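Input record (one chain):
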Amino acid sequence: MVKVIQMDAVNPRGERNVIDGEAELLLGFEFNINGKLGTTIYAPYTSNIDRPTGVLGVDIPSYIPSNMIAAPGGTTHYKIISAGVDVDFENETYVVDSNASAILPWDAVATTALTLTNTVTAASTHPLFLALGIEFYQEVNGTMYPLKNGSYNALSLVAVSGM
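The corresponding structure, as predicted from the sequence alone:
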C-alpha cells in the first residue's frame, strides 16, 4: 500500500492517498505470505473485470486436483473461492460479492470447468479488486472439517482495475 500511495503525484507529501495512487500495483498481493496462490494452485486460470457491468470473474478449465493443487497432509477435499470488491476509499465504504465452488474431492479425477462470478456496482468509478483463494478440508465420518494450516490456505489479488 505504501508503494500505491507513493505513486500519488497530485497531493503533497503527508496527504497522498490511494485514490490518486496506482491501485494496480496491488495486483498479485498475497494475503497469506506463508501460503501463496502461485505455489498452491497450479491449474491455469483467467481473470477479468468488466467495469461497465460490475462483473468480476475467474475461469478455470478442467484440471486434475492431485496434480494441480499442492495440499497439506490430511487433505481430502478443497474449495476454490473468489471475491469482487468495489472500494470507495474517500467515504470508507465498499461493495463486496463472494462466490465459491462446491467442496470438491482432492483426487486424480479431472474436474469440470469452473467459473466464479462476482457482481459489484455497475459502472463504478472506484477501484475494483478481484481475489482468488483456496480452502482445504478433511472428511471424517461424512463431516467436512476445515484445515487451518496457514501455510496452504492462499488468497491473492488476481485482477485490479483502478480509476
